[in-house]
Amino acid sequence: MPPVVAGITGEPIADSDTEETWDESDVTVRGTRRLSRICSPERARAYVESYAPADRHDVSLRDWQALAPVIRPALASLCVRDSAVVRQMPVHLDALARIGAWVLKETGAVADIRDLLNPDTINRWVVAARTAQEAGSLAAYRSRIRRLAPLLWPDCPWSHQQGRVARRKPQPPYTAEQVARLEADCRNQPTEQARHRAEVILTLGLGAGLDGRWLPDVRPDDIFSLPSGEVCVWVPEPDRYVPVLQKFAPRLLDVKSRVPSDESLLGGPVRTNKNTVSHLVGRIKQPGAHATDPRAAHPRLNPTRLRNTWLVHHLTAGTRLPELLAAAGLQGLNSLEGLLQHVPVSDDALANIGRVARAHARR
């Protein structure tokens, strides 16, 4: 059992015997629906053979007619060699189709799969498409193609230095005034169930830094009090105990007392669908809330911003990084770098730096 973090208080689906064919409504071009159904080489090959972009995502039918003779045989050859490629065939096919459509526009022809896997080509595509897509999405496509490249082209020159894709800017924390508006929205929900769910999302987000990755899995038995009086939440993946900020501890215990021990704290059976919290947040009534401006006095409820508010609170309070990283389930500092601009500089710390500098100058 993992230790309590100190210093932070206050399988793929089995194949069936039924032959299956694919159409555009069965699996989206981006491969984000029913991905786990592609769990055999036969189904993966069937998906590749029946793929049609339907003029979406910058890939026209005319583009695909030119690209199919190159991409289809290349991906089909992997279906018997690599189970990971089989499971993720829709997203790999989508990535190659997108870069292929761009290469067609640039050069007029694609004669070999290597034309799509060259690192110079990929980096030029990233730069050209940056104005039309999020940097994070472009980096994901490039990473996916880089993983595919050695399988399709064993001698691919991917030791080439990659052009840097700008890191996605983190969502800002809520201000105290914005949190007050969110608290009021929580209290004014039209039903008891809606008020309960909003309270769970707020208290676990602001009090323990949990967002949609963990919220659906928390059960009443995962919340407990220590002899010291601190309230903790056990969280999986990675397994850890997260001390709840003292301000939210009584509210979380009250929520726990109203839910059966075998149910999710959000109500109903424990669910692992990553979209569960997004659906619940979308149902929360927030009349007058601004949907897009993070600086608005009355913002929309966003679990990621709740988590970032929790992180900034601990950074401001001076919580040691080893304990904060462990409680937050973070492996490194990348997620915190973009939040440092929201952490005020301590006057005492500045004064201490000045004293050290003056002492060093007198040596």
Mean pLDDT: 78
Rg, please? Answer: 25 Å
Order of helices and strands: HHHHHHHHHEEEHHHHHH
How many separate domains make up the residues?
2
SS elements, strand count:
3
Globally, the shape reads: globular
Walk across the major sheet and give the strand order: 1-2-3
Report the CATH architecture of the largest domain. Orthogonal Bundle
Q: Counting H and I runs of at least 4 residues, what is the number of helices?
A: 15
Query: How helix-rich are the residues, as a percent range?
Result: 40-55%
SS-derived structural category: mainly alpha
CATH superfamily of the largest domain: Intergrase catalytic core
Describe this structure in words.
This protein has 363 residues and is mainly alpha-helical. The chain has two domains: 41-152; 176-351, Orthogonal Bundle (hpI Integrase, Chain A), CATH 1.10.443.10. Helices cover 47% and strands 3% of the residues. It is built from 15 helices and three strands. It has a three-stranded antiparallel β-sheet. The N and C termini lie far apart (51 Å). Residues 14-26 have a biased composition (Acidic residues). This is Phage integrase family protein. InterPro entries: DNA_brk_join_enz.
